[in-house]
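<instruction>
Derive structure tokens from the sequence
<data>
Labelled lines for chain and fold:
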Amino acid sequence: MSSYQDGGKSSCQETVVEKEETVKENRDFDDGKKRSWPELKGENVEIAKATILKERPDVYVVVLPEGAPWTMDYRSNRVRLAVNEKDQVVNVPVIG
């Protein structure tokens, strides 16, 4: 019986845990500010953008077409919205 089958973690699971711990260490999430808006997925892009800017005037919102490429860099003052052809947000907007 492998260690995975008897309750041990696979190397993939260990890597994920290590990365999650690194993210927690590198970002301050205890400032009380909202960082994600799952309730805006499916919402009209203009309503979503206005809601985010009302709740977090310190960020800027980038609107991109669904499927468009974007960089993987983290920005603590940016929220990206992926929008379909009906102007609906298709991702969960998050800081980054």
Q: What stands out?
A: Residues 11-26 form the longest helix (16 residues).
